[in-house]
Structures are given as C-alpha cells and as structure tokens.
Amino acid sequence: MKYRALYQEGVERLQLAGISEASLDARLLLEYVCGTDRNDMLLRGMQDVSEEDAKCYRRMILERADHVPLQYLTNQQEFMGLNFYVDENVLIPRQDTEILVEEIMKDGHDGKRILEIGTGSGCIVLSLLKYSNSCQGTATDISEGALETAKKNAKQLGLDVELIKTDLAADVIATGGIATGGKGVYDIIVSNPPYIASDVIPTLMPEVRDHEPVLALDGGSDGLKYYRRILQETKELLAPGGKYYFEIGYDQGDAVKKLLEDQGCRDVRIVKDYAGLDRVACGTANI
Q1: Which of 61, 73, 75, 266 has the maximal Cβ count within 10 Å?
Q2: Whole-structure pTM over 0.90, yes or no?
C-alpha cells in the first residue's frame, strides 16, 4: 500500500473513534513504524510500505482508536528536552511537570542531595541530575514496574540514581539513603504525587482513566492524602534548610500551602504554570 494512502486510512479510523488529534497521531505512528519523519509525506507519499510495516501500523491504529495513549504505543515521551521510555507502569510525563523541575533549577540545585518520592518514569529526578553538577539522587516508588522503567531511563541517559522500592518514604532511612545513617541527608525532597480526588477519576479522559496507572492518580477523597503523608514521613530526611517541592492540582494551592506551613516550613510559595494555574508548591524547612 502507498505511504500516503496508508496514512489517510489511519486518519479516518482515528476520526471515527473520536480521537481529537487524529491527523497528528496517525502521522506520528506511521513515522514510528516506518522510521520516517514528517518530510516523507511529501517525499515518499507514493512509495510502497512493506506488508509487515502496514500490518504493524494498522495494529497500532486500532489500539490508538481504543484510546491507548500514543506514548504507550511508541514507548517514547519527551520531557525537559530528553527522551524517556514510558509504558503502562508509569504516568506519561507532562509539560506541566516541567514547571516543577524548572523551579528547582531556578533555585540552584548543583551539589544537592535529591530525594524524589513516587518517581514513576524517573523523569523528574533524572532531569535534575542531567542538568546539574555533582548532584546525588534517590528515588522511591511502590511499583516494581515503575522502578524498572526508571532504571531503564537512567541507563539510557547514562545517569546514576539510587532506586528504592517502598511506600512513599517508609524504607529510605532503613536502607541508609545516599548517606550513612539516612537521617537529615537530603537537601531537596520533590514529588508529583497522586493528587486527583477519588470521585473525579471516573470523569477523566479514557486515555488517562482506562490506561494510566490509577495508583499514580488517586489522591484520596480530597486529593491531599499523599501530601499529608509525605510531609509526615520525611521529617527526619530533610536536611536543615532543605526544601520541599510538590506538583499540585490547579485548585490545591491554598490547601498545600497550609500543609507546608503547618509542617513548620518558611518561605512557602505557590508557582503558577503557563496557563496561570497553580502548579507547584514549595517551602523551606524551618530547622
């Protein structure tokens, strides 16, 4: 079948399934399967696609029509200018989360000891390590599959990060963390925890609701469950003057600010994203 005709077939199938960016997704999947780029639509539109590639493409189109996220089909997502491997074990890194990483970088993070709680693909801690000098990183996750994905990304980027399988921060002290004893050794504790209220989960887009891990989405009845737990469980891990950084929901700024202040943090602030919505909460340990 001809390249352009196969592409058009994919577009029409995705449009029938109600995929909002049918043309873009059909093109990206065809480029992924054939190893081409967007210029090839013009340059080789009338060239034949091998039967094997056509079969693979049609299978992926059917999966995308069933609302499987594009990134899970290609196992790729760009974040902070880096290419990350992603699969169904982890949330797909989003541009909004780059605000969190950028805020830490603005504050200066060279030479810091970083702990990420709930690392998923590892995109946050690995980006911080990639764009820094002399940092050390530890990352936790309760999901073995997520840790395997983070490990794969660390290897792909040529970075060293300590990965700990645990519920939030429960076993960080027990394992010793990145320094002997484990207590009070981290200058930065960062997390993009589950923060969607439980009753909102059924209303999410099918790509998110049906395919991304619910464990990484559901923040309890008010969406604040994991902020409370992280703050409680990491008291002994943050060094004097160390900082917390959290990604938050658009309507959670005041609530998370109060949680940080109740923890005794100073200089608490809420940072907005490019859409003008609350996106990051940060504060300094008052010790």
Answers
A1: 61
A2: yes
